[in-house]
Amino acid sequence: MFKLLVALSLFVAIQGQVGGFTDRPDLLNAEQTNAMVRLAVNNIKDQQNLLVSPINVVSVATQLVNGINYRVVFTARSPSATGFLTCTAKIYQSFAGTQSVSSATCA
């Protein structure tokens, strides 16, 4: 048991902050990120009655929980807004691969 606690402590020390998001620039252009942006866009349309067209993924971060939380920030355009919007989506993916939008907002 002691060895397990020591190993876990070392892992946490190496990883940095416990429970926080870790920037993942390697996921900026990944197909799975594009799929999550599409999921967020549909959620924004359904929940906020706001049509947006994504332009560019700005950042992706992950957080290991009982699955993986993704925080995706992207720029978008909307016919009902002037200029660009910055949208932030938090998407949960279970270890089985099922994804759901936890939150999605544009400002």
UniProtKB/TrEMBL annotation:
Residues 1-16 form the signal peptide. Keywords: Signal. Gene3D superfamilies: 3.10.450.10. InterPro entries: Cystatin_sf. This is Cystatin domain-containing protein. It comes from Adineta ricciae (Rotifer).
